[in-house]
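so i finally got all the pieces together for this one. its two components total, 677 residues if u count the protein bits. some of the lines might not be protein, just check the labels. i wanna see the whole assembly predicted at once instead of chain by chain like last time, that was a mess tbh
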Amino acid sequence: MPGLLKIKDLIAAVLLLILSIAMYLMTFNFERLTVSQIGPDFAPRLTAGGIFVLSLVLLFQTLLDWKRAKKENSGKVTEGHAEQEQAEVVEEDTPKVERYRNVALTTGLILLYIYLMPKLGFLITTTVYLFVQFCLLGQKKTWNFLLFTFLSVTTAVVVYYVFRFGFELRLPDGILG
Amino acid sequence: MAADLIAGFSSMFTPYNMLLIVTGVAMGLVFGSIPGLTATMAVAICLPITFTMDPGSGMALLMGLYIGGVSGGLIPAILLKLPGTPSSISSTFDGYPMAQKGEAGKAFGLAFVFSFLGGILSITALILISPPLAEFALRFGPIEYFAITMFALTLISSLSEGSIVKGMLSALLGISLAMVGSAPIDSFPRFTFGMGQLDAGFNLLPALIGLFAVGEILNISERKISPLTKGNTPPPKMKGFGFSLSEFFSQGWNYLRSSLMGVGIGILPGIGGGTANIIAYATAKNQSRYPEKFGTGIPDGVVASESSNNAAIGGALVPLMALGIPGDTVTAMLLGGLVIHGIQPGPLFFTNDTDIVYGIFAALIIANIAMFLFLSMGIRLFVKILSIPKHILLPIILVLCAVGAFAENNRLFDIWALLFFGILGYLFLKGKFPIAPAILGFILGPIAEENLRRGLQLTQENFWPFLTEPIAAVFWIIALLSVVLKGWKNYHQKKSLGGT
């Protein structure tokens, strides 16, 4: 995938530039509560300045590399690091769209899990979360619903009671409480 | 010191603490041996259960996890050519060819014995170096601490993998994230966006677990997991340790050099076993009389890698215990574990909590022995564990992460923070930004700011002494050198890449 890395760097640099500017502007609302030479705004401004300068460097590096690669025009952009592939997992690489869809699904599932936990309680949400996540992560041929059900229920129950009685931590009870 | 050490041992020789150490080592070995799970993750998910223990017992468990986690990586490295953790990368170079030649038993024997010996040497170094270092550090004031934290941050940014610009950006982002919440000294709330829950800032635990564990889980979730096809490797036949005494003694110098390198690299902030094993392997190869044999399955390669990665453990604990500055990601977690118990590692740690300090030393030695026993007797079991599918393990780990984030303050907000940091960690991985500098930035940023402001109060608002005080100056110079060196190296690498 020539060029891929560079686009990511470009996006990262631009986002960081925006972030640093926003951060710098926000420090103007900080109030001085001491008479000292530097107040609570000093370190954030310094950090924001650092991010600004370094992301500019990253931006120029990326553009320069891109330009140089275009000049040499072998069609290949030298990639700093080959993407680390986990050979045991992948037979042939999953298409990019599918990979991002998978991540989005898992992220969404975790979001829902956290959102529902105080409402339905740890036991119910964890059981459901685990079951769905097992399915999301494994290929279809690994789906074993009996095993998944057993594992998700056992894990939820064991974790809940071990923390409740072993470590004095009461996880959200939700509607079961 | 000897008396303290004996006291340390006697505090660990209770059935409860011994059980904790042994459990920690066993769990650590499991986490280390499964590729994708690391010692950092093992410590992260066990941290919350140490909250209710007394600090000594908590540390006993965590030390077991640390030693086990670093050691476990050798199993898949030798059997499957897959390093279980970054600490075992170069164990695959000669370990796997040895296993292919039918010498798996010998490779394992060498790996266990030299992991053990590397560990013992580094713990000895830790016990000898850290107390005098702590005593020396007693005279450090805010000026010196500011210089040390900046030194650690610069070093980690420049030493971590990949581009130095990204490393430094990563550290600055970590510092920025730590600024959320009350400012030091005057407690003015910064970057809270009016959210009361952010007044105290992000908790360390959700930040650590999120960036490391959850980010990694999201990254793995990109691809559907199929069962390990290579998992049915037969366990190796062990007969004794598979090597003769003369073979053992012929590795003496290699062992000593690799272990000392491991300790040295471990002490430097930001790099640990993951870098140590590669450098030790390369050095062993360069200095060998038969460098061409490296990579074909010779004992020297396994010995260099395995003694150096375990030696890095003791090294990484030196700055944590003596200065309160974590050297790698696991020690960053350990710092969190100590702080939760109200203990601040650093110079005063050695005078105020002598029992815990020496308890940690004792726990490390016991854990090292337990690791050795587990591996030499239970290798068959650990080989079986390799075939536990990850699509089962990862969701369970995520649940434990969520519980861990929740446990510190019993608030759901921290689980949201966990997810936030998880997504951030994933983006870091995707953009090839190193994560370790961000973690160190998150921990050291506030320390640096506080010391800067304290120091300025001391010097009547004059910044000059920050640079000219001798101890501080030394740290600034080393920090500057590390950046220049890395920049120079990067430049030359680029030039040679462009040339070909």
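The helical segments of chain A are 4-26, 42-72, 96-120, 122-137, 145-166.
The CA atoms of residues 106 and 133 of chain A lie 7 Å apart.
anyway lmk what u think
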